[in-house]
Specification:
It contains twelve helices and ten strands. The chain is α/β, with parallel strands linked by helices.
């Protein structure tokens, strides 16, 4: 009796059985994804993240949970993310300046190269503002008056970002523009309306008062003019080699598999077209700037290089 065919059949059966016993690699994602918001509930980063969650969940085929971990201007959540597995199940939502600016002015446990950048939704309408009665149409008029009078001017400051940017401008123009620290945008606007400072920086609280004609928007920090104020130039248009596009940024630990990054990028790209998200951005006067993938990664590194140079120039 020829045993060889039976032996071969037996080996084939064993091979098939062994192959079948090895579970196939699950396709990402096989469980819910968590967006860790680096700020408290109700703020801009939280609101935009929640507006995008449903669309992201539909695209990924898994629920997307929101978890708030505020602290250190988004730095607490970002630091925690660095130590998490690079598997795509934890995404941090923070402001882009947490990555592009803060590491240049603070001793932090992370830098811009420690993460992969998936998307950014909206741009905070950062600007310099003043009372219309000052007669300044743009920030060029403000600087011209400071030069002609040769006296220091004061401005309401809310962030270290505005202090570096205005400090760089002061040095470039040979004028003295002294920051008056405030506790936030509302106080900065109140200081301006009350005539306690010459002008102010605001990330968006000014918008309604400016629309009503109570405030003059002098210069825009971002790369593009702000919707509703088409005559207000950007800082770059005024001749300053700096821009601050502070966005709601979504990032993951560096080193995630390419297929995971591709799936996340695709999901965020779909969410970028979601009516609920776009309506939320519109209500917050954040425009409709929604870059994903390589576009946002390139922009984040460019902004980081600009801020690094600005920090050095302001010293």
């Amino acid at each position: 009796m020829n045993l060889l065919p039976k032996m071969l059949l037996g080996l084939s059966a064993l091979t098939l059985a062994a192959t079948g016993a090895v579970p196939a690699m699950a396709e990402y994602p096989e469980k819910p994804v968590t967006i860790i918001v680096g700020f408290g509930a109700g703020g801009g980063v939280d609101t935009v993240s929640r507006a995008a969650a449903n669309a992201l969940g539909e695209s990924l085929g898994q629920p997307v949970a929101i978890k708030n971990q505020p602290g250190a201007g988004g730095g607490l959540a970002t630091t925690a993310l660095k130590a998490m597995p690079a598997d795509g199940y934890n995404v941090v939502a923070t402001t882009s300046t947490t990555l592009t600016f803060d590491p240049h002015t603070q001793d932090l446990a992370f830098n811009v190269d420690d993460f992969d950048y998936i998307a950014a939704f909206g741009v905070f309408p950062e600007a310099l503002i003043s009372l219309p009665s000052r007669g300044w149409k743009t920030f060029a008029d403000t600087v011209a008056e400071a030069k002609s009078k040769g006296e220091p001017m004061s401005y309401a400051s809310t962030t270290s970002v505005d202090r570096v940017v205005v400090g760089m401008i002061s040095k470039q123009e040979g004028v003295t523009l002294n920051p008056t620290p405030t506790k936030g945008g509302a106080e900065a606007v109140a200081q301006t309306l009350g005539g306690h400072v010459d002008f102010a920086y605001s990330s968006g609280t000014y918008y309604a008062q400016a629309e009503a004609g109570n405030l003059q928007v002098l210069a825009v920090f971002g790369d593009e003019r702000i919707e509703g104020f088409p005559d207000t130039p950007t800082l770059q248009e005024l001749g300053y080699d700096i821009s601050s596009m502070n966005m709601v940024l979504f990032l993951i630990p560096k080193g995630a598999p390419d297929e995971v990054k591709a799936k996340l990028t695709e999901a965020f790209g779909a969410a970028a077209k979601d009516p609920q998200l776009l309506e939320t951005l519109k209500k917050r006067n954040m425009g409709s700037f929604v870059p994903v993938g390589e576009e946002i990664s390139t922009l984040i590194h460019k902004q980081s290089d600009q801020f690094k140079a600005a920090v050095e120039a302001s010293k």
